[in-house]
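Thread amino acids onto this structure.
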């Protein structure tokens, strides 16, 4: 004998009845089965509302009953053949006549006692189970409807009601009869209770439970898009997961089934051919030792704290007993070994009552100050890892808490049973979706991670970056299982944000249709979105944008800065941002501040981390200046070469930032800081080659002055050329001192063979002493700078 239970949700419309009958014909042909049909939620709501309206002497209850009756009569006429309808219609009319009598009695009495309400609710599963039976009989299935109350009230192991029927027996789920002879309706897990009772009484060998939308998934699909079906659970794992989601199977019912070792198969009516989840006593060893991540909302933490608790025998018992006497269920318990505090988790709806009970219980201790006032924290949720094999895998707790911490999710309380099948953490409800996705990515590694980008700046580099993201996102998703989402873009005019990925070919049109730019509002919304693995990307030269870095970092949002202002500003600010990134498990990366995409900063960091010591750095760090001096030979004017560099995108909008050496000063200072030096911009000496007059006025004035001073630039070139040297604007760091300026570079120097816009860095260390470590390549240009930003983005998620 197999018990087959259908979920009530399935019978909320005519199609649901048809689907269930189709499953019955296709899956259980010639099998000996017993079926359990529960009440559907819509019918339950209407019946409960009818009782409430009648008790308030509101005549609308009659209309509700008539509407519900019309619905079931219509279902019957649609589902049952005409020649079979008479008996079914008569039965349904009889049930509604009885419901009307009970409701009128409630109206006269002016109240609805609990046992009367239960009697009314019992009609729900009776109607749906009888209609289901009539529908099956109408197409030739040998089915018989059995009154669950009569059958389960029979104390013998079998019942005469089924002895003379070798077809399919159908029972109403969730109803029974009390020892006093009253009808009883189980508000919670009723159909599962009936299923378990029938399985025990009939010596069932297996159970199939058909659900509508709910299944055992690795996480809640409403929050985690990549959640997967769990193929197998042992009883203990299913019990742990069911405690957080009773809509799949009710834990007390599962307990009864475990005792008889009856395997259960949870299947979905939406996919008849899917095997679903099998629950049995079998322990299957596989790589997924974490079976699922469960969650529970609307939790409150009640915290009792004080020195008056320490060493007092029976203190915890008093707490738990008083809450139990008040009918308050404790969901989670945690206590420090110092015995200075006890924290319990309860349903939020019980928090006010729990607070009152405990304040009354410890009134004296609170007034004396030996116990602090009871603290209640609301709007919390529980996330829990579940898996029977966790006990044989060290480090699960550490990985769980580390994953949450890296995404700025603060844990309010922790609980883990000695069986190690469940690790629970209490977090803010506002962070639940983020937490579930973070944990799912961490423990189910064959699912895609997601990274959410907020880009500020859509100039040359910004456009190139977005184009690179468009081109590579699919490849990265396949090769690295990393999905790149563009969730926010802002430029100087417009901004647009969406939790849906806006990385598409028409991103610019979407931005143009966006709202007016507002840095504060952009930051506020980015934080409110609270997306996992978020990255703020600053591709501007705007001094206002670095001001929001700290807000991002303290919310565990990583920052990738092409903008040099933060890293080259006041040392204390730079250091503070670095420390924030560490404290809040985020990243502050700015590789493109020096040398575009060249791995200069990351190499210096690796050298130092490995225990090496930097002695000296010599570098050509301006692609602009290198381009200019590589192309200037005294034949074309110096001004024309500078203008050409600007036209090709190698200079800042104001070329003086490059030619004055200020940009190189900032870069060598950044390298000095990354090498461990405490340095400000005033500590960097600059030997400028530009006449002072060139630094005044507008950019147009600057070009006029360059033309006027052409002889000055020719003399600089001729002096170097006469000695067989090339002009290079070199930055040097040695013994904590930094300087920048034009130098004559001989042919035997690595910097001599530097062409176009290339940069070069020579790093002399204890290990690279005789021959310096050389990093060389393109140090300017929108494409390479964008690729450097792209690399930093990937570093935020890959250590």
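Threaded sequence (799 positions):
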């Amino acid at each position: 004998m197999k018990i087959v239970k259908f979920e009530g949700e399935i019978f909320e419309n005519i199609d649901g009845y048809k689907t269930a009958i189709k499953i019955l014909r296709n899956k259980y042909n010639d099998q000996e089965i017993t079926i359990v049909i529960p009440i559907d939620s819509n019918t339950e709501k209407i019946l409960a509302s009818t009782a409430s309206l009648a008790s308030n002497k509101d005549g609308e209850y009659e209309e509700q009953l008539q509407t519900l009756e019309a619905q079931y009569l219509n279902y019957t006429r649609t589902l049952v053949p005409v020649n079979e309808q008479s008996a079914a219609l008569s039965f349904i009319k009889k049930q509604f006549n009885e419901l009307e009598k009970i409701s009128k009695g409630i109206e006269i009495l002016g109240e609805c006692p609990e046992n009367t309400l239960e009697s009314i609710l019992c009609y729900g599963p009776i109607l749906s189970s009888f209609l289901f039976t009539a529908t099956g009989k109408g197409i030739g299935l040998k089915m018989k409807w059995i009154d669950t109350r009569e059958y389960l009230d029979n104390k013998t192991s079998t019942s005469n009601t089924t002895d003379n029927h070798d077809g399919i027996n159908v029972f109403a789920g969730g109803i029974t009869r009390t020892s006093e002879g009253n009808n009883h309706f189980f508000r919670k897990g009723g159909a599962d209770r009936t299923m378990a009772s029938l399985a025990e009484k009939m010596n069932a060998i297996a159970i199939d439970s058909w659900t509508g939308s709910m299944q055992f998934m690795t996480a809640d699909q409403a929050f985690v898009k990549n959640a997967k079906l769990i193929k197998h659970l042992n009883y203990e794992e299913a019990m742990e997961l069911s405690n957080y989601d009773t809509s799949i199977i009710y834990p007390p019912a599962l307990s009864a089934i475990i005792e008889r070792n009856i395997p259960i198969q949870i299947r979905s009516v939406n996919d008849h051919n899917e095997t679903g989840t099998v629950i049995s006593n079998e322990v299957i060893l596989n790589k997924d030792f974490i079976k699922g991540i469960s969650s529970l909302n609307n939790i409150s933490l009640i915290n009792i704290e004080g020195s008056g608790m320490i060493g007092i025998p029976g203190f915890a018992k008093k707490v738990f007993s008083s809450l139990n006497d008040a009918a308050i269920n404790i969901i989670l318990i945690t206590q420090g070994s110092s015995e200075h505090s006890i924290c319990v988790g309860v349903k939020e709806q019980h928090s006010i009552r729990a607070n009152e009970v405990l304040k009354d219980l410890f009134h004296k201790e609170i007034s004396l100050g030996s116990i602090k006032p009871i603290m209640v924290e609301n709007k919390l949720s529980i996330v829990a890892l579940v898996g029977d094999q966790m006990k044989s895998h060290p480090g699960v707790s550490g990985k769980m808490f580390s994953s949450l911490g890296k995404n700025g999710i603060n844990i309010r309380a922790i609980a883990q049973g000695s069986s190690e099948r469940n690790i629970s953490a209490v977090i803010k409800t506002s962070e639940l979706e983020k937490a579930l996705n973070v944990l799912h990515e961490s423990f189910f590694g064959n699912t895609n991670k997601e990274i959410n980008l907020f880009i500020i700046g859509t100039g040359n580099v910004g456009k190139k970056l977005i184009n690179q993201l468009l081109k590579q996102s699919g490849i990265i998703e396949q090769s690295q299982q990393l999905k790149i989402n563009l969730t926010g873009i802002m430029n100087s005019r417009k901004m647009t944000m969406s939790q849906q990925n806006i990385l598409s070919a028409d991103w610019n049109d979407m931005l143009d249709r966006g709202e007016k730019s507002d840095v504060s509002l952009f930051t506020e919304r980015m934080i409110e979105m609270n997306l996992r693995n978020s990255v703020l990307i600053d591709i501007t030269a705007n001094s206002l944008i670095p001001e929001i870095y700290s807000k991002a970092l303290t919310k565990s949002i990583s920052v990738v800065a092409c903008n040099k202002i933060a890293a080259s500003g006041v040392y204390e600010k730079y250091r503070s941002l670095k420390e924030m990134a560490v404290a809040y498990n985020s990243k502050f990366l700015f590789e493109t501040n020096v040398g575009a995409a060249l791995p200069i900063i990351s190499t210096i960091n690796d050298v130092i981390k490995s225990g090496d010591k930097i002695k000296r750095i010599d570098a050509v760090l301006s692609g602009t200046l290198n381009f200019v001096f590589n192309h200037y030979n005294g034949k074309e004017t110096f001004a024309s070469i500078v203008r050409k560099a600007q036209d090709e995108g190698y200079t800042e909008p104001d070329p003086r930032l490059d030619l004055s050496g200020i940009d190189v000063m900032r870069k060598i200072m950044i390298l000095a800081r990354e090498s461990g030096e405490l340095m400000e911009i005033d500590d960097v000496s600059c030997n400028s080659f530009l006449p002072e007059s060139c630094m005044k006025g507008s950019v147009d004035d600057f070009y006029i002055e360059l033309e006027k001073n052409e002889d000055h630039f020719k003399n600089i070139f001729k002096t170097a050329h006469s000695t067989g040297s090339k002009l290079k604007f070199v930055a040097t760091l040695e013994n904590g001192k930094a300087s920048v300026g034009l130098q004559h570079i001989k042919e035997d120097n690595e910097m001599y063979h530097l062409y176009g816009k290339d940069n070069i860095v020579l790093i002399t260390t204890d290990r690279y002493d005789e021959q310096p470590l050389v990093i060389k390549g393109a140090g300017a240009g929108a494409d390479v700078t964008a690729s450097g930003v792209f690399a930093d983005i990937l570093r935020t998620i890959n250590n």
